[in-house]
User: Which sequence fits this backbone?
């Protein structure tokens, strides 16, 4: 295995890790704000800066591989980010070519949630499973699916945009511009927006808009707005997951991202709605719902797995 740099390009943060011998744990890692509002070129500059911060030795740069996960539909074969709704200006960005020109090495570009499910499958909650559905729930909602030990990509590499599953046709507009998608109802952004619409938390966040972690903590402390908002998000998520179980018949569902770390109350609500929404008990047989064990490292380790399986 060559030395690998894995990059997780998120709507809020850019994370990068260097694996000097192509195996975990990371030799070095870093995280910095995406600053998406500054535009596409600024974000690209931040990606380069994150990789520079890893202090990769010159000896490793000679045969380095870079794997980068980007949000939204990705033409994996051409290494083009077609549309990243949470990154203004990111349409038809030839990310692979840009990275190759700058770093002069082999570059792999994949949807970030696809990288996350690869990471969990190889190194985390999904080890030993063969049929997996994973949702990454943060600024937006991404999805990845493993079917019979293979990542599901679809005809043009655009499959499993699970955050854009229509759940409530008259619901709020999603970041992609369509109404009632799962992302518009259960992402961290949607949850924070609903809290503000309902008057905020009893104890407002010192930073202004409450974070998912603060909303979850408020719910555990009995805050009625936090409980109501998280329950509504859990209902939307459980409903969407029932549709995915009917579609893919997985043995395992993994929930990752900041919202999934909201804790037992939220996950219990999601699972209760999911199981009550299934058309037949056969779909629930052997089905497990687990939180990610890799957390923010899922997509980074997925980048490592992507290079390994592509070499």
Assistant:
């Amino acid at each position: 295995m060559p030395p690998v740099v894995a990059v997780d390009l998120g709507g809020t943060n850019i994370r990068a890790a260097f694996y000097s011998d192509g195996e975990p744990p990371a030799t070095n890692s870093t995280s910095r704000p995406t600053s998406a509002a500054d535009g596409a070129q600024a974000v690209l500059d931040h990606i380069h800066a994150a990789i520079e911060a890893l202090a990769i030795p010159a000896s490793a740069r000679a045969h380095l591989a870079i794997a980068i996960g980007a949000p939204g539909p990705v033409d994996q074969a051409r290494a083009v980010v077609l549309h990243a709704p949470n990154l203004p200006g990111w349409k038809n960005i030839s990310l692979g070519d840009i990275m190759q020109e700058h770093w002069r090495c082999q570059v792999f570009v994949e949807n970030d949630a696809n990288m996350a499910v690869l990471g969990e499958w190889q190194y985390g909650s999904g080890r030993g499973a063969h049929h997996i559905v994973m949702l990454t729930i943060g600024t937006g909602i991404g999805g990845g699916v493993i079917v019979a030990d293979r990542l599901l990509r679809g005809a043009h590499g655009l499959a499993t945009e699970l955050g854009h599953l229509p759940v409530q046709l008259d619901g709020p507009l999603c970041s992609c511009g369509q109404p009632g998608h799962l992302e518009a109802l259960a992402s961290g952004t949607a949850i924070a927006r609903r809290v503000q619409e309902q008057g905020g938390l009893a104890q407002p966040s010192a930073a202004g808009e409450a974070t998912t972690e603060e909303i979850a903590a408020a719910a555990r402390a009995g805050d009625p707005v936090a409980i109501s908002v998280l329950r509504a998000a859990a209902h939307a998520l459980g409903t969407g997951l029932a549709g995915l179980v009917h579609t893919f018949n997985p043995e395992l569902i993994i929930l990752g991202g900041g919202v999934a770390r909201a804790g037992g109350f939220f996950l219990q609500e999601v699972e209760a709605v999911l199981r009550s929404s299934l058309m037949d008990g056969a779909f629930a047989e052997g089905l497990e719902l687990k939180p990610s064990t890799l957390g923010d490292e899922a997509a980074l380790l997925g980048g490592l797995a992507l290079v390994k399986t592509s070499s």
About this structure: The chain has two domains: 4-116+297-310, 127-293. The chain has ten helices and 13 strands. The CA atoms of residues 168 and 239 lie 10 Å apart.
